[in-house]
Write a structure and sequence with these properties.
The protein is mostly helical. Helix 1 packs parallel to helix 9, helix 4 runs parallel beside helix 7 and helix 11 packs across helix 13. The chain is elongated, with a radius of gyration of 30 Å.
C-alpha cells in the first residue's frame, strides 16, 4: 500500500497480520510508525530523525487529563468555601496534586520532546505531597491553628535533599542529551548512570519521606478519634474516618507509582500497572476531593486539644471516683440519658453537677472505659431488651435507644455482642421456643 503526502513524498506500507489482536503497521522506507497497544511510537531510522522520536501513551494521557480537570474544578470550589485555615491548606494540597499530574502528562503525552531541559521539574515539588496532606489534616482536626517553624522546616527538608541530588542531572546534562536518554540506541552510558541514580534516589526518598508523613497523619487521626470518644456519644460525623481510608489508598497509590517509576529506569516494564495505576489514582483522587470539599469545619470542642487535656488531669481518691461512678450509673439507668443521640460529656457533667475532668478520670481509671463506650454500653443493653421482649422492628429500636443511623447501631451492636441485632433476636427466639 502506498500514500503520497505533502512534498511529493511517498510512503509504502506492508500490512502483516500476526496471531495477536494488535497489528503493527510497518513502512518499508522513511519514518517507521508502529501502533502497539495504547502507545503510538515514532521510531526514526536514522540519526537525523532522532529529534522526532516521540511516545504518546493514549490511555494514561486521557486519564491524567481528566485528573487535571478534577483538581482544577476542586480548586475553584475550594476558593468558594468559607475562608478557614483548613481550606487554605486544602488549596495548597490541591495545587501540589495538580503539579504532580502535570508532571505525569509531561511524560505520557510526549511533551518532554519539546521541553527536555525541564525534565524532572516536578520531583522536588512532589516531595511536599506528604507534608501538605499532614498539614491539612492537622488544621482540620487540631484546635491549634498554628504550625511551628520547625514543622515547615521539616517539610522542606525532603525537597531540598532531592534538589541537591538532582544537581548533576539538571546542570551536567543538556536538553538534547536528556532527550537522547529516552532511546536506548542514542543514550550515553555515563549520562544514563546519572539519570538512573537520580531516579532511584528520588524514588526511595519520596517513599521514605511521604510514608513518614502518612504515618504521622494516621496517628493524628487516631488521637483525634480518641479525644472524640472521651467527649461525645456519637462521633461518626466528627471523626473524619473517611480520611483514614483515603490515607491508606494514597499510600498504596504512591508506593505502586514509585516502584513502577523506578522499575522503568531499570528496564522493567509492567504494562498492567501502566493501565491500572492511572485509573486507581483517578478513583482515589475523586474520592478525596469530594469528601474533603464536603467536610464541614469542626468546632473547637470537637477538635483535638491534647495540651489542655494534659494540663487539667487530676488524681481523685478512690472513694470519690466510686461516688461519681454511682452517679453516672443512676443518670444512665434511671434518667436514661443515653437515649439522647447527641449526649455529650458536657451535658452529662451539667446533669450530675460533676466536672468533665472528674468524670473522664472516673471512667478511665475506675470503670476502665471512655465516655463513648460507657454510653453505648447502656444503649446496647437497652436494645437487647427491646429485641427480646418486644416485636419492635430493628429500625425503630435504632432511634429508641439513641442512635442516629441503623449502620452505626449495627456496627456498635456487632462489636459488643459479636452478632447483628437481627441474628441476636433470632437466636434468642430459638432458645425460648418450647421443645416439641
Amino acid at each position: 500500500m502506498s500514500l503520497t503526502i505533502g512534498g511529493g513524498q511517498t510512503l509504502h506500507w506492508r500490512i502483516e497480520l500476526p496471531p495477536i489482536a494488535d497489528s503493527p503497521l510497518q513502512p518499508l522506507s522513511g519514518q517507521d510508525y508502529v501502533i502497539v497497544s495504547r502507545r503510538f511510537i515514532s521510531r526514526p531510522n536514522s540519526a537525523s530523525q532522532q529529534e522526532n522520536d516521540m511516545t504518546v501513551d493514549v490511555v494514561p494521557t486521557v486519564i491524567y487529563s481528566s485528573m487535571m480537570g478534577v483538581v482544577a474544578l476542586a480548586i475553584i470550589q475550594a476558593c468558594n468555601k468559607p475562608k478557614h485555615k483548613q481550606t487554605y491548606y486544602l488549596l495548597g494540597l490541591l495545587v501540589l496534586m495538580l503539579t504532580h499530574i502535570i508532571g505525569e502528562l509531561y511524560i505520557y503525552s510526549g511533551a518532554y520532546q519539546y521541553a527536555p531541559a525541564i525534565a524532572g521539574f516536578q520531583l522536588p515539588l512532589r516531595m511536599l505531597l506528604g507534608p501538605a496532606l499532614y498539614f491539612y489534616a492537622y488544621m482540620a482536626m487540631s484546635s491549634d491553628s498554628t504550625l511551628s517553624v520547625k514543622s515547615y522546616s521539616m517539610a522542606l527538608l525532603g525537597p531540598m535533599v532531592v534538589i541537591v541530588a538532582m544537581i548533576p542531572f539538571m546542570f551536567m546534562i543538556s536538553g538534547e542529551q536528556k532527550l537522547a536518554l529516552a532511546n536506548p540506541a542514542t543514550r550515553d552510558p555515563e549520562l544514563w548512570k546519572i539519570a538512573q541514580f537520580t531516579c532511584l534516589f528520588t524514588a526511595i526518598t519520596f517513599i521514605a519521606f511521604t510514608f513518614a508523613y502518612l504515618t504521622a497523619t494516621l496517628r493524628l487521626h487516631a488521637q483525634h478519634r480518641r479525644q472524640l470518644m472521651d467527649k461525645f456519644s456519637a462521633i461518626e460525623h466528627r471523626s473524619m474516618d473517611w480520611l483514614r481510608v483515603v490515607l491508606i489508598l494514597w499510600g498504596l497509590v504512591w508506593f505502586i507509582y514509585t516502584v513502577n517509576y523506578a522499575a522503568t529506569f531499570l528496564g522493567v516494564n509492567w504494562f498492567v500497572l501502566d493501565a491500572f495505576l492511572p485509573v486507581f489514582e483517578l478513583s482515589v483522587l475523586l474520592s478525596f476531593t469530594y469528601l474533603a470539599l464536603n467536610q464541614s469545619t469542626l468546632s473547637s470542642t470537637e477538635k483535638d486539644n491534647s495540651k489542655e487535656t494534659q494540663k487539667r488531669r487530676a488524681l481523685l481518691p478512690k472513694d470519690t471516683m466510686r461516688q461519681i461512678a454511682a452517679q453516672l450509673t443512676v443518670a444512665m439507668s434511671e434518667k436514661t440519658l443515653f437515649k439522647d443521640e447527641d449526649l455529650s460529656l458536657n451535658r452529662l457533667a451539667t446533669e450530675i453537677s460533676v466536672s468533665e475532668n472528674y468524670i473522664s478520670e472516673t471512667l478511665s481509671q475506675e470503670l476502665n472505659t471512655n465516655f463513648f463506650q460507657f454510653v453505648n454500653s447502656f444503649r446496647i443493653n437497652e436494645a437487647k431488651k427491646l429485641l427480646t421482649d418486644t416485636n419492635l422492628p430493628v429500625t425503630t429500636i435504632v432511634y429508641e435507644v439513641g442512635y442516629k443511623s441503623k449502620s452505626t447501631f449495627n456496627a456498635a451492636f456487632k462489636k459488643i455482642e459479636g452478632v447483628t441485632p437481627s441474628a441476636y433476636r433470632a437466636s434468642h427466639l430459638l432458645e425460648i421456643q418450647p421443645e416439641s
